Amino acid sequence: MSERREITHELLAEALRSSADSPLIVPTDEQRAVIEAPFGPSLVVAGAGSGKTQTMVQRIVWLIARHGVDPASILGLTFTRKAAAELRDRVDRAVGRLREAGLVGGTDVDLPEVATYNAFANRLFTENALVVGQEPDALLLDDAGAFTLMRGIVLRSDDDRLAALDSSVSTIVRGALDLARGMRENGVAPDDLDGVADAFDGFLELPGRVVKGRPTPYRDVIDAQDRMSALRPFARLAASYEAEKRRRGVIEFADQVAAAAAVVERAPAVAEEVRRRAAHVILDEYQDTSVGQTGLLSSLFRGHSIMAVGDPKQSIYGWRGASAGNMRRFPSDFGAPDGPVPPRLTLSVSWRNDVAVLDAANTIAAGIERPGGDGPVDEPLPELRPRSGAGPGEVRATFTQSLDEEAEAIAGWFADAFAGRASDDRPSGAILFRVRRLMPLFADALAARGVPCRIVGLGGLMWLPEIVDLTSLLRVASDPTAGSELIRLLVGSRFALGPADVAALHTLARRLAALDWRMRRYSASVRTAARASVASDDDEALGDALEYVAAASDDDPLLSGISATARTRLVEAAVLVDDVRSRIGAPLVELVEFAIARSRLDLEAAANPSRSRGRTDLDAFVDAVVGFQAAQPNAGLGALLDWLDLVADDDALARSTDEPEPGTVQLMTVHGAKGLEWDLVAVPRCVAGEFPASSREGTGWVRKGVLPYPLRADAADLPRFALDGYSTQKEVVEDLKRLKDEVAERQAGEERRLAYVAITRARSRLLLTGSYWVPSRKRPGAPSPYLDELRDRGLVGAAPERVADEPPSADGVERVQWPREPFRDGGAAVRALADAVERHRPAVATRAAHSAEDARTAAGGAVSSWRAELDLLLAERASARDPSGVDLPHRIAASHFKDLVTDPERTADERRRPMPQRPYRQTRLGTMFHTWVEHHFGGGGGGELLDGGLLDVDPDDRALLGLDAGTAADTAALAKLRAAFERTAWASRKPVEVERSIEVPLGGHTLVCKLDAVFERADGVFEVVDWKTGRAPDGEDAAWERQLQLALYTLAYSRYRGVDARRISAVLVYVAESGEVREFRFDRVSDEAELRELLARASERVSAHVRQG
């Protein structure tokens, strides 16, 4: 440049125009103050839709063009990858246009760095990992991976205190994981948590009250001490979790920040280099930063040229670690010790919302107090002001009598807005929910009005009926005690059991629960002990009842209360569950797809005209399973189901990455909608107690598995509670009450900010709805106080009067059709189509047969048929000679391992052309004996009932299945085996495991081992026992084969239990009908290296075999 021009905002605006026809965007006075802010710390309070991204881009451009700042020395940080990509793209395009206009020099490589907060921390950590004694190539653990890792720790834990928590596995996993992350974020050690628990123990030692002359502690103190005692086992889980992460070489997002902070603390030179490279820093969405992120950034950039941009009114992520007090603390966190107070700038003109929407947002925001404080913000937050030329906008409130009417009102509102407009000319729209549970109801209402819609996010999908049916089926297959899910399947549209049959099934379950494996009643002492036990077997008995119905004869007296139609359907249900259960060892995606096809959910979704997106939603669910399996390839069905339980109720899966779709109504949570905007927005369930939601946090952190506020780094911004200084329990109770009140106030502020975010998502039209009555509730709801505030301002009308004092049902009794009709239109069209198919089935089959015959004749008759057979034979030979066509199976059952390594060629041939094998009587007898032993030890394997007469098998299939032999002989042989077993010492011992299936990765394959029983000896040695029936083979080969099987069991249980293989003693126990019992043990069995070598040799032999043809 021969002559440097004076850089002005007008000049930059001209250079940044994409074309001569595009508008000239000149900053407002408010924006200029931000853009021209002096070098040094500054805080920008930017309201919703106030153009903060554009202003940040202009700030960067101003630094480069006006002050000659090197673009590469500017660092911009934001939260999501999507936001970072958008900011980076806009900055890159702006800098490129400045270069084209000749206003700046440099090359395309010289660009500002834009990243997420965690990516910045991770880079700082990986470049300097050795400084803190860690490896730089640590793998990043995502949410699914973290959940799976913690779940494994919980399941392996032998801490008896976990059982006393009376919580599900997924609940414990979630609590332990949240606590571990909070500890990491705030630098809390397990001993710190023990100290808090000790303080609550001490409260019980304080003087209580006197009742009838006896010292009695306060119930509130007892309950608080009980809840806080859970900190100790949770702290142990957190410590084990951190140790396991270190062992595996994995880290989480919170670890990145903490590790980066440790680097800065231990290596001042590294911090200085970061400051040198990032001479100017801009922090986006600063209100959502955590105390850990703030601490890292403060240690790096205190007194630096740093600008933080955020909005306290949109601080809605406190539950995931964000600290809204960061905005208030910015001057102390980033101001130079002896420097001026950082300026506080504002962006208060909304470039998004029309006037009426802004009025509603400002009305709700007026009640927002300083987050975490006990009064208003230090300086009033600015109200949003409309842009010049803003439209009038529209805000409506509709309060109906029933929930169905509310859904129909929203659907009608969108239908009217879309009516008469081409699909590409329709506005964008969204329904934003406080909770996901009701999304399917509103989606159905939209579909009934012909309004395209889509539920966004896996959490919303989890509430859809077809997804609930699918996960219920998977849960029942995985867990025989899943009684609620089994009822869901049985009363659904597939099996449609009525109330009388469901009640009869429950009666059968109770009867079976009182019977032992011999179908005799338990003794009175056993029944008394069962009633007094901690766990209930009602659900398990329900699953047993289903299996019993499937296996019982038609004249079984126990089935007298179940209708014939229900029996047929129950048999079908049992077969369905058993089929899915048999696939549990398959990869998760394959298992889920099989469950969908086997249950016909895909056909049901396709046939239901009121669920036009049913098949798409199933595909979206499968995609989520694909992602889970990709992240956790070794996770099983139980881990997937627990993860899905968490997803269904957790908004921690961050904001939505889905852009608005004109012409389609998107359904999502308010949390997921942060950062998005639509032309039309509806917010349902504006009902007192729902939105705003009533506080369910009670006394806040005085709960199981919650990091205590006094230990958090932002404790000054949180409700306070002292851990000492009390002289009586009454003082503790009074302080707990004050804490509860402050927590409720804090929750009310969170709800109000959430409402503000929901309202400001609407550009022009906003609909707020609610209803008096909801099914299953006996008391009516009332309009949300937010609606009252808007009414007082004249923005919406008053709600209509409630027309009834009772739920809308006849005679106070709700009347419903049972079974529920799955199709909204009564299914007339679907049934008519099904009838037509049935009528034409014979004719179609006849025509198909004739067509096939005609085709063969036209093709040359027998000659063509011979040619086709020759082609098939040649193709088979070519396949046989192809080494890539046959290999060792990926999954290898322990019972087949011996055949595979001793005769791999035969295994390859059998895989090439598998043939069914007729079961031997001894195999059937062995299965019966194993089932009896399992029940003898109290196992719940749910195997076949022992009475062969109860097996409901087609007569034509009995020979193939080996069931045509006389069952009387089998029963007599089983009695001999039982008698022989009961004479052994094993019969009186108590196993620690029964029928335990374990999968072990080995040499690129997966060994599937099913351990019959495991016993723990007094010396700490685990005895793994495999029961065999019949005579034991003799000879050296037999001995080697026996030790090989025991080697597999030793390896499997060593991996599963996490103990040294030397602490495991495996034994084969042969029980013969003659009464003879023989045991085989070995001082040494093949170790893991030897087993790997056997697999490798077998693979080599298979390859050579197939090459030879």
Question: What share of the residues does DSSP label as strand, in percent?
Answer: 5-15%
Q: Give the distance, in angstroms, between the N- and C-terminal Cα atoms.
A: 77 Å
Name the CATH architecture of the largest domain.
3-Layer(aba) Sandwich
Which fold name corresponds to the CATH topology of the largest domain?
A: Rossmann fold
Structural class: alpha/beta
Shape: globular
Organism: Pseudoclavibacter chungangensis
Keywords: ATP-binding, DNA damage, DNA repair, DNA-binding, Exonuclease, Helicase, Hydrolase, Isomerase, Nuclease, Nucleotide-binding
Protein name: DNA 3'-5' helicase
Pfam families: PDDEXK_1 (PF12705), UvrD-helicase (PF00580), UvrD_C (PF13361)
